[in-house]
Structure formats: structure tokens, C-alpha cells
């Protein structure tokens, strides 16, 4: 939650830099956003805003604003005021009464799924509630579904449950509940990689394309094939083996990061080749539908999605320009070391951090990362 002083000095002041110097919250979470302008998204959603926030051992603070008051003719911004109230009574449990018993029970069930389960009443004793009214748009079923899809894309697709989102709608219950990303299980190859500060690469490749148990053992006798008998191949080598000439200066500006990539074929060879090469059977229609909905490589900073990277329909869907590499060298998969992966066949996540990757700064618009040398 926020104190009255925090509301006055940070929330109500445009372009504050407190998150630049106070990167970590009291709970150890890395704070997201540092431009000091994110609150103005509330104006886009609705005309009236009531914010209730409570810190430990306090009755809380209530902040109210009519965003249309900022559009009054002949007035400067320093002549427009919001309302700040300090209730006489304990405001801590307002959240439970606002949510209602059914929603509370569903949230409780979701919190129990966390690696470190939380007690809802204790969790809601501090924090912030924002109520937006006189909304700007009509929220029909399609708009709510789009909201659900967008919110799901903000959740990191991993077993980490430290960041959870719930959606509840009074118009329809079919989208209600804990929002969870679609985890890819039907893949041919999965690549999990960590890159440390010295650009040493570690991780593993999980092979899921072939029926390894059916392949005759003599196939794995040669030097070229002996490493193919295991489903999991461990990785541990310096990045310079893949990118000769990368310098220490480049490593210091890049910083450590991790990523997970999935490769999925959309088509299969004929039945004869499938049996000949011991390939697993796949549902091509199901895969294509999944990739069309969830494909692309997403970027997350401290478990928060950085848009629009990997967002289908945007100019940054193929932000790594994998499609250009395929167009420049359209070799067949049979061409050893020359075949390039199409962006239409992969999905994945790259994870960075404000602390470990300080040179990867947000654009002022909050849409993407500044395309400096570290990014390129």
C-alpha cells in the first residue's frame, strides 16, 4: 500500500523518479515502471477514479479524482486538485466486502496454488484498490474476451506463481477466475538456456520429435549420432563458441538473462517417412491453432510482460527478424547447418531484469525497449 506522503510526493506528481532509486519493494519484489506516467492510463479507462490504499498499522488513505477536471479551459495543471482523505476507522478489510463472498472464495483457491500459499485476509490487510467509474468504452462480450486474452499474455508462462491475475465480470461468468497462460506441452524441441554475467551458457535441449525407444541401438554407434540417443542434452559452454568475437565490453552491457524456446512442426511428412525416421504422430491442426494464438517470442522484465514483442498483429511480432533470415537463406531442413527456423514454428519467452540488465531501458511510451547497442 501507499502512505499519504507517498500519494502526495509520488502518485500525484508527474514524472517522479523514486522507482529509479528505490528499485526493490519492502517485500523484495523489483518494482516495475520508472517513468512516473503509468497512472494516466486510468483516465483512458474512465472519468472517475477512487483509490483506496492501506499500509501496515494505518487506517488507509482514499484518493479521488475526476479526470475531466484537467480539461477545464483557462486553468493550469497546478490549479486542478484531487481529493485525499484519511478515514477515522480501519479501512483494511474493505477489499473483502467489495469483492463479495464468491469471488473471495475463488481467489482463496487460487492463492493456495502458489509455491508459497498466502492467507487472503492477511494479504488484503495492506495493498491498493482502484475503482474506475463512468467508463469511456462499452464493455461487451468481445471486449471482455480481448481483455482476458491480453491479461493472460502478461502472466509469465512458467511454474512461477509469484504473480497472479484474477478476472471477474458481473455481465458474464464464463471468463471468471484465475488467469493462467497456455503452457506448451506438444512440442518437437524445447530449449532452456541461462546466460550468466560472463556470457557462459548453460541449459538443456529436450527432444520430443522422435520415438527414441524404437530406434535401433546400432544407429547411435557413430560419432555423429551417439549424442542423439538421449531425450535431454545438457548445454554448458561460453557464448563465444556460438558467436566468435563477442567482447567483454559487450558482455558487461548485455548482462545475464534466460530464455525458453519451443519448436513445433506444422506439417508432417508422408506416412512412409514418418515410420522410416521414427517420428511421433502429431495433430497438425491443433498445433497450427495453438501457434496462431500463442506463437511468437515474448519479452518479460522481472516477470512483467514488455509489449509489443511477440504480439501477433503488431510490427514487433517477429522482432528478432527470424523471417528475414529464412528469406535470405531458404535452405531445406536437410541442408546441414544451413536451415533457418521460421518464426511461424516457434514460441517462447526471454527473461530480463531491471537490476541485471540496466542498459535495456524502457521507451518513454512504455511500449518496448530502447533500441540501443545493448538491445541490438
Structure description:
With 376 residues, the chain is an alpha+beta fold. It folds into 2 domains: 4-137, no CATH class; 189-352, no CATH class. It has 11 helices and 13 strands. The protein has helices spanning 4-11, 18-21, 41-45, 94-99, 101-111, 120-123, 141-154, 248-254, 271-276, 284-294, 322-328; strands at 46-54, 61-66, 83-85, 127-135, 165-167, 177-179, 189-195, 200-207, 232-238, 257-263, 296-301, 304-306, 346-352. The strands form 3 sheets. It has a 7-stranded mixed β-sheet, with no helix packed on it. It is elongated and about 80 Å long. It starts with a helix and ends in a 24-residue tail after the last strand. The mean pLDDT is 82. GO terms for molecular function: ATP binding. InterPro entries: HATPase_C_sf. It comes from Salmonella enterica.
Q: Distance N terminus to C terminus?
A: 37 Å
Mean pLDDT: 82
Cα gyration radius (Å): 25 Å
Low-confidence stretches: none
Strand residues, percent: 15-25%
**Helical content (DSSP H or I, runs of 4+):** 10-25%
Encode the helix/strand succession as letters: HHHEEEHHHEHEEEEEHEHHEEHE
Total domain modules: 2
Tally of helical runs: 11
The structural class is alpha+beta
Strand order of the largest sheet: 9-8-7-10-13-11-12
Amino acid at each position: 500500500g501507499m502512505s499519504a506522503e507517498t500519494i502526495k510526493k509520488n502518485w500525484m506528481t508527474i514524472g517522479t523518479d523514486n522507482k529509479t532509486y528505490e528499485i526493490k519493494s519492502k517485500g523484495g519484489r523489483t518494482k516495475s515502471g520508472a517513468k512516473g506516467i503509468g497512472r494516466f492510463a486510468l483516465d483512458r479507462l474512465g472519468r472517475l477514479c477512487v483509490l483506496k490504499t492501506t499500509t501496515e498499522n494505518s487506517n488507509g488513505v482514499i484518493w479521488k479524482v475526476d479526470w475531466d477536471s484537467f480539461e477545464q479551459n483557462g486553468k493550469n495543471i497546478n490549479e486542478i486538485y484531487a481529493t485525499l482523505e484519511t478515514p477515522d476507522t480501519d479501512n483494511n478489510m474493505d477489499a473483502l466486502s467489495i469483492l463479495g463472498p464468491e469471488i473471495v472464495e475463488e481467489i482463496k483457491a487460487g492463492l493456495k496454488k502458489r509455491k508459497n500459499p498466502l492467507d487472503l485476509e492477511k494479504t488484503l490487510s495492506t495493498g491498493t484498490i482502484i475503482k474506475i467509474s463512468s467508463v469511456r468504452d462499452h464493455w461487451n462480450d468481445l471486449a471482455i474476451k480481448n481483455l482476458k486474452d491480453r491479461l493472460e499474455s502478461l502472466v509469465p508462462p512458467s511454474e512461477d506463481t509469484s504473480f497472479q491475475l484474477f478476472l471477474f465480470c458481473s455481465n458474464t461468468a464464463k471468463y471468471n477466475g484465475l488467469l493462467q497462460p497456455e503452457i506448451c506441452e506438444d512440442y518437437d524441441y524445447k530449449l532452456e538456456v541461462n546466460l550468466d554475467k560472463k556470457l557462459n551458457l548453460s541449459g538443456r535441449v529436450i527432444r520430443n520429435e522422435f520415438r527414441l525407444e524404437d530406434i535401433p541401438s546400432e544407429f547411435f554407434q557413430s560419432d555423429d549420432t551417439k549424442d542423439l540417443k538421449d531425450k535431454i542434452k545438457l548445454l554448458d559452454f561460453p557464448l563465444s563458441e556460438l558467436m566468435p568475437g563477442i567482447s567483454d565490453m559487450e558482455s558487461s552491457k548485455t548482462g545475464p538473462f534466460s530464455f525458453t524456446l519451443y519448436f513445433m512442426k506444422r506439417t508432417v511428412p508422408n506416412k512412409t517417412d514418418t515410420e522410416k525416421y521414427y517420428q511421433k504422430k502429431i495433430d497438425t491442426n491443433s498445433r497450427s491453432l495453438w501457434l496462431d494464438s500463442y506463437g511468437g517470442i515474448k519479452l518479460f522484465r522481472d516477470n512483467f510482460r514488455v509489449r509489443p514483442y511477440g504480439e501477433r498483429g503488431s510490427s514487433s511480432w517477429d522482432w528478432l527478424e527470424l523471417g528475414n533470415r529464412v528469406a535470405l537463406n531458404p535452405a531445406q531442413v536437410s541442408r546441414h547447418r544451413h536451415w533457418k527456423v521460421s518464426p511461424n514454428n516457434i514460441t517462447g519467452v526471454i527473461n530480463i531484469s531491471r537490476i541485471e540488465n540496466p542498459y535495456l531501458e524502457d521507451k518513454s511510451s512504455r511500449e518496448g525497449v530502447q533500441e540501443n547497442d545493448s538491445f541490438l
